[in-house]
Each structure stands twice: as C-alpha cells, then as structure tokens.
Design goal:
Elements: E1 8-11, H1 15-26, E2 34-37, H2 41-47, E3 53-55, E4 69-72, H3 76-82, E5 95-98, H4 105-112, E6 116-121, E7 131-137, H5 143-154, E8 157-161, H6 168-176, H7 178-195, H8 200-220, H9 225-231, H10 238-246, H11 252-270
Parallel strand pairs: 1-2, 1-4, 2-3, 4-5, 5-6, 7-8
Antiparallel strand pairs: 6-7
Helix pairs in contact: 6-11, 7-8
C-alpha cells in the first residue's frame, strides 16, 4: 500500500483504534506517518510505546498537516461531538474513514461536508491480524482513496466491499458482533462439558481448542462449513445425536437468526434521528 500522499490521522485509540494502529505500524506505515488523537491518558499509556505522535485534541495537530486519511475509531455515542471538529481539516484529497457502528454517511456528510467517505466495520480479531472488515465508499471517494482505505484495513485482516450502505447494519450484526457469538459458544461448550462430568479446567481447554481448531480448519479447507459438518458426522454416531438437538426447528439456526436481527436493528437505532 502506498501512503506517499500524506500522513494518517487516527481519531481514537481504544481497543479497535489501537489494533489498527499496531497493524499499520507492523506493515504499511512507519511511526512518522501516523498521528493519533486520544485524550484519555490511561488509553494513551497503551499507545505511546508504538512511537507515533499523539495529541489530546485535533487543535494540537499541525495546521500545515495534509492527511491522506482521517480515521474515526471512536464509539458511536461520541461521534456527534468528535466528527464536527474535523470539518475542513483534511482538504480535498483526504478520505474520511469511519468504523463507528450505526453512524451513516449522511451524518458524516452533515458534519464534514461533501467529502470522500468510507465506512468500514472491522472486528476484534484485527488485534492479531485476523480481522474481517467490510467497507463501503460514497461517490466522492475515488479509486486511489478506496485503495488507501483497503490497504489500511488489510493490515489487520481480510477486506470485502459492498455497494449498498444499507447492508452495513447487517454486516455489523454478523462479523462485527460475531466474535462475541463464538466466544459465547466456547463458554457454553465448556459449561456443558462440566455438566457432563469433566473438570472445569479440562472443559475450558477442550472447548477453547475445539473452537480455535475448527475455525482454523474452516479457514484453510476447500470445503464450506456445511460440508465440513457433514464430514465429521457419522450416521448414527455421537455427533449426529448432538446435531439432532442443535438443528431442530427450535435449535441454533432460528436462535442465531433472531440474534443477528436484534443486532442489526440495534445498529440502525444507534444513529440519531
């Protein structure tokens, strides 16, 4: 990825912002190209070892700075306060990349004007370079600006694009929130193992390693998830007995459908009217 067109300004250094910054500095950026705006000193203590320049507020950024991208990595609840402070700061060639859930481009444009905007939804495996991010760009974002954003996001994992911004809430519900569903699966599997008589430490180890191993196999296998499931299911065997419960009419599939729907609806509700 080329970032020769200018520095990157990261607004917010929390868990996801920090994961992005660490990924960039492992790959496409050097510390001199990155500016981080983060007022919270407890958060800053995790960021300062990265070596990038940090300021507490945008007014402390150099007036002559011409960033190639401004990346908003703050919580949706504070976007209304944060975004207007960057109106007119980036210039015509700057792309504004937001990872705030439920904050549509119309609200960004309201505060920033008719600028290049890319919305993206990464997820927490970005912290280890295994994230999944889906992105959408408005019509003002040109090919080079999209490529810049893609390069920044690829530094922490895989990237896919969508053409319709409306789908961002569903994306958030599936991949953005999805790691929590997998973590819950590991919790529930461990609890079920204890109920079956296994010691708690062994139950947790079996659950966590099974989830990790199955995920790694899914990532590397040519078969899709359905075929991998069939591969491990012997007719009349133990797996089939368990799946008869999980795949029942009131089993995992309708439960997951309701969960994703609830998350997507919540995402839409996050945006102020």
């Amino acid at each position: 990825m080329s970032v020769s067109s200018g520095p990157i300004v990261l607004v917010g250094g929390g868990r996801m912002g920090g994961a992005l910054a660490a990924g960039w500095l492992r790959g496409p950026l050097d510390a001199a190209q990155l500016r981080i705006v983060e007022p919270d000193e407890s958060v800053a203590a995790r960021l300062d070892p990265l070596g990038a320049e940090r300021v507490r507020e945008p007014a402390a950024l150099p007036a002559t700075l011409e960033p190639a991208a401004i990346v908003f990595a703050v919580k949706p609840q504070v976007m209304a306060e944060v975004v207007p402070r960057y109106a007119g700061f980036g210039g015509a060639d700057c792309v504004h990349l937001s990872i705030a859930a439920g904050w549509p481009s119309a609200l960004l444009a309201r505060d920033l004007g008719e600028v290049a905007i890319v919305r993206a939804m990464p997820n927490t495996p970005a912290a280890i370079g295994e994230g999944m991010t889906v992105a959408w760009a408005n019509s003002a974002a040109d090919r080079d600006q999209r490529a810049l954003c893609e390069g920044l996001l690829e530094a922490v994992g895989a990237v896919a694009w969508i053409d319709d911004e409306y789908h961002m809430d569903a994306v958030t519900a599936v991949s953005g929130s999805g790691p929590a569903y997998v973590f819950l699966l590991a919790e529930c599997l461990a609890e079920a193992a204890v109920e079956a008589g296994l010691p708690a430490d062994l139950a947790r180890l079996l659950a966590e390693r099974t989830v990790c191993g199955a995920g790694a196999l899914l990532a590397q296998a040519e078969d899709d998830a359905a075929q991998l499931r069939r591969n491990v299911t012997s007719p009349g065997g133990t797996t089939e007995a368990a799946l008869s419960v999980l795949m029942a009419a009131d089993g995992l599939s309708p439960l997951m459908t309701r969960a994703v729907r609830a998350a997507a609806e919540r995402g839409r509700a996050l945006a102020p009217s």
